[in-house]
Design goal:
about 525 residues; alpha+beta; 4-stranded mixed β-sheet; 10 strands; about 45% helix; about 5% strand
C-alpha cells in the first residue's frame, strides 16, 4: 500500500478513539459504508516472530479517500487481512520475518507473503526466519531492499520431512514473542506490567523483580534453543552444514526483555542489568499513571478507557471499573516539583503502591522504586540527600514526560501543560478524557488556588526573613526570589489559560496528536518536538 499522504491516513493506534479501530476483518469489503481505522504493518524495529503492530490506516468505505489520492495505491489488497509473514523492506542485512494475524493491511515498507495453503503458513514462516533463508537471500538481493520478488526466488528444499516439527517450533516462538510484545504499553494487546504478576503471593517489589528476571531468562534461552533447532532443520535440508552453523547469538534474540538486544552497544553486563531494572520500574510508573487517568485499572485487564471527550467514563466508574484504585475524577494530574496539592501525581503513585502491595511493605517498595530509577532513568544523589518519595517526585517532574514521548513515539497520550521554565505549575491531561471543561477546571481547581498559596507563602517568608539571622535571612531571600519568579510565570500562564479556556477548543482524535497538540499555543511543553513547529 502507498497512501499518497501518510500524515493524513496513518496513525499510531493509540492516537484515535479505540472504539473506532476495526480489528480482525477478513476483506476490504468489510469496511464498506463504515468508518474504519484498520491495523497496519509498516516496518519498524528489527524484530523476529511477532510485533511491530503499532500503526493503523483509515480504510473507511473500502479506502475510498485513499483511492482518490494522487500517487496512492492499494496494491494486492485482495491479499490483505490474511494470516501472513512480513518483514522490513529496508533491512537486507537483517532479514527478520514476523507472523501477522488476520486483520492487517500492509504498507509498502512491509512486504508480505501468504501461504498458498493455510496449514503451510508456519512451515513457510520457519523457512523464511531461518539462517538458511537469510544466507540464500544474501545472494538473491544484493541491495538494501528485500522485496517479495527476492523472497519468492528462495528455492524450496528438494526433500523436507520436518514440516510438522518446524510448525510446532514456530508456534512456540510466536507465542514467546507475542507474550513479550504484549507486556509493554506500546502494544494494543497490553494487559498489565510483568511486575503485577504474582502480587497476591509476593509483597516485595524487589523479590518480584528477581522472580521476573528469572522468568525472562527462561524465555530468552528457550527462544534461543528453538531458533537454533529451526536453523538446524533447514541447514540440513539445504545441505549447508559447511557454510552455516545453527547457533544464534544472545543479542539476536529479539525480545524486549532481553537487554542484549534491547540496548546493545559496548555495555557491560552490569550496565545492561541496571538499565533493564530502571526501565522496568519506569514502565510500572507509566502503568500507574494510566490507572490514575483511567486508561487502565486494577479491576480489569488491558485497555479500559480510550474513547474520546470523556464520553461514557462516568458509566465505567458507576459500574465499578475502578473500585480498587479510583481513577482521577477529571483526568488532570498536577505534576509539580513541590507538593502543593494533596492529590498530585506523586502522592497518587505512593497510594497505588500502598494499594497493590500493602502498607506493611510500603517503605521498602518505595525505596526499591527510587533506587531503581537512580540506576539509569535519573541521576542518583548522595546517600541521605533525599527520601524515596522525593526521588519519585523528582523523576515524575523531570524525566517522566521525556520517557513518555519516547514510549509513544512523540505522539503522547498524557499531555504536559506547563507554565514555563520556572515550573511554577505543570500537570498531565489524558488525551482521551480531554473535553471543553478541562481547561476551565484546570484553572479553577489548580492554577487559581496555587496563585493564592504562592502569594501567602511569600508573605510568610518575608516575615520570617525579618526575624532571621544573617545566613538564614539570605537563604530565605533566595527562596523568596525563586517563588516570586514562579508567581510571575504562573500569572502569565493563568492569563493564557483563561484565553484558551474561553475558546472552548475541541479535539478530533482522527486528526492525530501532531495536529491536536498544536492547538494550545505555549500552554503545552515540547510543542516543537511533537508537532514539528514552534509554539505560537
Amino acid at each position: 500500500m502507498q497512501s499518497g499522504d501518510n500524515e493524513k491516513f496513518y496513525r499510531l493506534w493509540h492516537e484515535v478513539n479505540n472504539s473506532e479501530i476495526v480489528r480482525n476483518i477478513s476483506a476490504l469489503t468489510n469496511t464498506k459504508g463504515k468508518k474504519a481505522w484498520v491495523p497496519l504493518q509498516r516496518g519498524g524495529d528489527a524484530r523476529k516472530w511477532y510485533g511491530n503492530n503499532l500503526y493503523i490506516v483509515n480504510l473507511s468505505d473500502e479506502g475510498a479517500d485513499i483511492k482518490r489520492t494522487k500517487n496512492a495505491s492499494l496494491r494486492n489488497a485482495d491479499h490483505y487481512f490474511n494470516i501472513s509473514a512480513t518483514w522490513n523492506r529496508l533491512s537486507q542485512t537483517r532479514f527478520y520475518v514476523r507472523h501477522v494475524e488476520q486483520g492487517y493491511a500492509f504498507d509498502d515498507l512491509s512486504p508480505f507473503a501468504n501461504s498458498y495453503l493455510a496449514e503451510k503458513h508456519y512451515e513457510h514462516l520457519g523457512l523464511l526466519a531461518s539462517s538458511a533463508a537469510r544466507y540464500l537471500i544474501s545472494f538473491i538481493s544484493t541491495g538494501r531492499k528485500t522485496e517479495v520478488g527476492h523472497v519468492s526466488q528462495i528455492p524450496l528444499p528438494t526433500t523436507f520431512n520436518s514440516g510438522e516439527a518446524v510448525s510446532t517450533i514456530c508456534k512456540k516462538l510466536i507465542e514467546l514473542s507475542k507474550n513479550d510484545w504484549n507486556s509493554y504499553e506500546e502494544s494494543a494487546g497490553f494487559i498489565k506490567p510483568s511486575l503485577l504478576d504474582n502480587v497476591d503471593k509476593i509483597n516485595s517489589l524487589c523479590n518480584l523483580y528477581k522472580k521476573q528476571c528469572a522468568s525472562w531468562q527462561r524465555s530468552i534461552f528457550e527462544m534461543q534453543r528453538l531458533e537454533e533447532e529451526n536453523n538446524r532443520l533447514f541447514i540440513e535440508a539445504y545441505s549447508l552444514q559447511t557454510e552455516l552453523t545453527p547457533e544464534v547469538s544472545i543479542n539476536e534474540i529479539t525480545l524486549t526483555c532481553n537487554p542484549y538486544y534491547r540496548y546493545g552497544g559496548n555495555r557491560t553486563d552490569e550496565e545492561l542489568k541496571a538499565m533493564l531494572q530502571s526501565d522496568t520500574v519506569a514502565e510500572l510508573i507509566s502503568y500507574t499513571i494510566g490507572c490514575i487517568m483511567g486508561r487502565y485499572s486494577l479491576d480489569r485487564e488491558g485497555l479500559v478507557y480510550a474513547h474520546a471527550g470523556n464520553e461514557d467514563f462516568k458509566a465505567l466508574v458507576e459500574e465499578g471499573a475502578y473500585a480498587r484504585f479510583p481513577a482521577d475524577s477529571d483526568g488532570i494530574l498536577p505534576l509539580t516539583v513541590e507538593a502543593w496539592f494533596e492529590d498530585d501525581i506523586a502522592a497518587r503513585v505512593v497510594e497505588f503502591v500502598r494499594t497493590v502491595w500493602g502498607v506493611e511493605h510500603l517503605e521498602e517498595n518505595l525505596q526499591f522504586i527510587a533506587d531503581s530509577l537512580c540506576l539509569a532513568a535519573i541521576k542518583p544523589v548522595k546517600k541521605g540527600g533525599e527520601t524515596s518519595r522525593e526521588t519519585i517526585r523528582r523523576y515524575l517532574s523531570t524525566q517522566f514526560f521525556k520517557d513518555h514521548l519516547k514510549t509513544y513515539k512523540k505522539r503522547p497520550i498524557y499531555w504536559l501543560f506547563s507554565s514555563g521554565k520556572e515550573k511554577a505549575f505543570e500537570c498531565l491531561v489524558y488525551l482521551h478524557r480531554y473535553n471543553e471543561t478541562t481547561l476551565p477546571r484546570m484553572r479553577t481547581e489548580y492554577v487559581t488556588p496555587l496563585l493564592g498559596q504562592m502569594d501567602s507563602r511569600i508573605e510568610r517568608l518575608r516575615l520570617q526573613q525579618n526575624e532571621a539571622e544573617t545566613a538564614e535571612a539570605k537563604r530565605i531571600g533566595k527562596e523568596i526570589d525563586s517563588l516570586t519568579k514562579q508567581l510571575t510565570e504562573l500569572r502569565s500562564f493563568d492569563d493564557q489559560l483563561k484565553h484558551y479556556a474561553d475558546m472552548k477548543i475541541q479535539l478530533d482524535l482522527d486528526d492525530g496528536v501532531k495536529v491536536n497538540y498544536g492547538k494550545f499555543g505555549t500552554l503545552l511543553a515540547e510543542v516543537k518536538a511533537i508537532t514539528g513547529d514552534k509554539a505560537e
